[in-house]
Design a protein that fits this description.
The protein has 728 residues and is an alpha/beta fold. The protein has 3 domains: 5-178, 3-Layer(aba) Sandwich (Rossmann fold), CATH 3.40.50; 187-388, Orthogonal Bundle (N-(1-d-carboxylethyl)-l-norvaline Dehydrogenase, domain 2), CATH 1.10.1040; 408-712, 2-enoyl-CoA Hydratase, Chain A, domain 1 (Alpha-Beta Complex), CATH 3.90.226. The protein contains 30 helices and 22 strands.
């Protein structure tokens, strides 16, 4: 049993995005709806969504559209058929009856639903249908949210569950949890219990919407959108639907009564105040005098008022507590309003989760995974019970801890560590703030290469942190420039260049495993490895031009070298150089690893891991494979073909025309000319051969000269202050 093609029935917001993510995984997709026009329109809407459901624009070519009436026979060739239409039992059952009459025996069939009984939907279907039938609850947006709840029935073949689980894990990159066929499964059931307790606090007037969001965001290890901004994004109408479903379908009368919407939320639904898609919900964005302002709903009047800052001294004090478990425990035990709020809302939610887990999930660990993967909690309910020190109800499951990690710290400093991964593989692990690259990081990269060459078979550069690295420590660079410590800066840049070259020419294979942000120096580290094993969600780019600089850790050199290698002998270097020049000059950042491949940062010999949780294991396996292939380090590059004036003149002309048209500033043009000079191999009258070191010298000189410019320093200051680029 394999999955090579899928039919998605229903081209609404969820169906079309699910189709998009299967296409991201390289799977052929047939997307059907009531009419072929509706299916095509659904796909077209999907292309306009932000964040983008597709890895690249070309991914859409794997999807074909059609209608239920004319094209349902197309599902005969599908290995997996997924129904994703409106959340109505009658409509789903009618469509599934038609599917049963057409599908090929042995094909997997599932319903993407957030809570409709899976067993009920399959009643009356054929034996083969029921044995290949299950529920699949993707969370929105499907590309970005890690969780997938898989809901088998008593009749589902265990091999089908294993097939779906493994495919979703390895090919779709999902964290899969098996849920029992109970109302709203695991995630929505538990999340909504907590939301109901918070709504009660707002309805009573004890807390404002802003106060609840201040408490229930990052302070307790939850996303910045906290409670009410999240509800606006998901849709208040969806909240109403899920709460009513739980109230109607739960067996326990006491539990049922905990799922009743407050009167003010019912009035919101009557008036259409359903959140972001309607333009108003618990919050509303208004424009006054050309300024945009976010206003807050008054639950008593359903009118909007200016936002009121929530002031809780205990939240301010807790910011200094780095460990989230300790922070939540401190806030929970507080004698102020924050502590009382958490004891009245979080406490009952955790105890309810412990009480119902045996009915809805296979284990306490699965419940924690659902809330982390699907709702962005730093700690799941059972982890929080332990952190706070609550007494779980009798009969509640407990967390079974996995065996201790056998990895061993070989060497460590403030910026990075060397970690023994086992099986002869060493890893460089970054752990500074945002994994910014400083002298400590460079030192550990160099030490990693030396240690691996002496005592290990291979080296991996990668981290379990959310982001690989956001690049160089700009504050340090700026301070050195303002002090005019040019010799120190020159030494710093040379050291970084030697560190990246060290990765390229190490005696052992070096696998770099970027994920999340891999910007500037992070991208330079990645492109100098023997191979890249990138997480699918990798946002990679040489972004130095945005702060008035050029890549000088070998990035400009490497992109020039790659352009030369991509050009046939005797061919015109300009087209390949032009593409690389634009990637660097416009500070292009990939929106996925496949797009990083299009931009030239990831090569065809590099690989992509869909499931971030498997990235380091895949990188280690790749490293061992390179060892098994009898790895030989590459020969240092002493003969690189460059274009000289045949490349420099047209690049400079393009820069001048862009400046004349007002598309770039004077300083942009200066940066562009320096970048063009490097990528032409210097101010040479014609094509020539240069060494790798000559290109490194050119980029280092350009970097230092730009760093001495007042406008570059202004750009760096502005970016450090705002996180945004400055056009000056």
């Amino acid at each position: 049993m394999v999955i090579r093609s899928i039919a998605v029935l229903g081209a609404g917001v969820m169906g079309a995005q699910i189709a998009a993510h299967f296409a991201n995984a390289g799977v052929r997709v047939v997307l059907l709806d009531v009419t072929s026009e509706a299916a095509a329109a659904g796909l077209q809407r999907c292309k306009t969504l932000k964040p983008d459901p597709f890895f690249t624009a070309e991914t859409t070519t794997l999807i074909t559209t059609g209608s239920f009436d004319d094209d349902l026979t197309a599902i005969r060739t599908a290995d997996w058929i997924m129904e994703a239409i409106v959340e109505r039992i009658d409509a789903k059952r009618d469509l599934l009856a038609r599917v049963d009459a057409v599908r090929r025996p042995g094909s997997v069939v599932s319903s993407n639903t957030s809570g409709i009984p899976i067993g009920l939907l399959a009643e009356g279907r054929s034996d083969d249908f029921r044995s290949h039938w299950l529920g699949t609850h993707f969370f929105n947006p499907p590309r970005y949210l890690h969780l997938l709840e898989v809901i088998p029935t008593a009749e589902t073949d265990a091999a089908v569950v294993a097939l779906v689980r493994n495919f979703a894990d390895f090919h779709l990159g999902k964290g899969v949890v098996i849920a029992k066929d109970t109302p709203n499964f695991i995630g929505n059931h538990l999340a909504l219990f907590g939301v109901m307790r918070m709504l009660e606090k707002v309805a009573s007037g004890e807390f404002t919407i802003e106060e609840v969001d201040a408490i229930t965001g990052p302070a307790i290890g939850r996303p910045k959108s906290a409670t009410f901004r999240t509800l606006d994004l998901a849709g208040v109408d969806i909240l109403g639907h899920v709460v009513r479903n739980l109230h109607e379908r739960l067996d326990n009368d006491a539990a049922r009564e905990t799922f009743v919407l407050p009167a003010f939320v019912e009035r919101m639904l009557e008036r259409g105040l359903v959140g972001e898609k309607a333009g108003n919900g618990f919050y509303k964005r208004v424009k006054t005098a050309g300024e945009s302002e976010i206003q807050t709903l008054d639950p008593a009047t359903l009118e909007y008022r200016p936002r009121r800052p929530a002031r809780f001294p205990s939240l301010d004090a807790a910011q200094s507590i780095g460990d989230v478990g300790e922070r939540v425990r401190t806030l929970y035990q507080g004698k102020d309003r924050v502590g009382q709020f958490l004891r009245d809302t979080l406490g009952p939610t955790l105890l309810y989760a412990a009480q119902v887990t045996p009915e809805i999930a296979e284990s306490a660990e699965d419940v924690d995974r659902v809330m982390r993967w699907g709702f962005g909690w730093d700690l799941g309910p059972f982890e929080l019970i332990q952190a706070i020190g609550l007494q779980a109800p009798p009969g509640a499951p407990t967390i079974v801890r996995a065996p201790a990690d056998q990895t061993r710290i070989v060497k460590k400093n403030a910026g990075a560590s060397l970690v023994d991964m086992g099986d002869g593989v060493l890893r460089v692990d970054f752990h500074s703030k945002m994994n910014a690259i400083g002298a400590d990081t460079i030192q550990m990269l160099q030490a990693g290469v030396q240690e691996a060459s002496r005592h290990f078979a291979a080296l991996v550069v990668g981290t379990e942190a959310q982001n690989f690295t956001a690049g160089a420590n700009l504050m340090l660079v700026l301070l050195e420039a303002q002090e005019e410590n040019w010799d120190d800066l020159d030494v710093m840049v040379r050291a970084f260049q030697q560190a990246t070259l060290g990765l390229r020419y190490a005696d052992v294979p070096v696998i770099v495993a970027p994920a999340g942000l891999a910007l500037g120096g992070g991208c330079e580290i990645a492109i100098h490895g023997d191979r890249i094993e990138a997480a699918a969600e990798t946002y990679m780019g040489l972004v130095e031009a945005g702060v008035g600089l050029i890549p000088a850790g070998g990035g400009t050199k490497e992109m020039t070298l790659r352009a030369a290698d991509a050009t046939p002998a005797g061919g015109d270097l300009l087209p390949a150089i032009q593409r690389a020049f634009e990637s660097i000059g416009f500070a292009k950042v990939s929106t996925s690893a496949p797009q990083a491949r299009q931009l030239g940062y990831i090569r065809n010999t590099d690989a992509i891991t869909m499931n971030r949780d498997r990235l380091l294991a895949d990188a280690k396996a790749r490293a061992l494979q390179r060892v098994a292939d009898v790895y030989q380090p590459p020969v240092r590059r002493t003969a690189i073909r460059v274009g000289g004036d045949t490349v420099l003149a047209p690049l400079k002309l393009g820069i001048h025309l862009a400046w004349r048209a007002g598309r770039i500033s004077d300083h942009d043009a200066l940066i562009g000319r320096k970048l063009a000079t490097i990528m032409a191999g210097g101010a040479l009258p014609h094509q020539a051969i240069v060494s790798e070191q000559q290109l490194l010298d050119l980029e280092r000189e350009a970097f230092l000269s730009l760093l001495g410019e007042r406008k570059t320093q202004e750009r760096i200051q502005y970016t450090l202050k705002t996180g945004k680029p400055l056009r000056n």
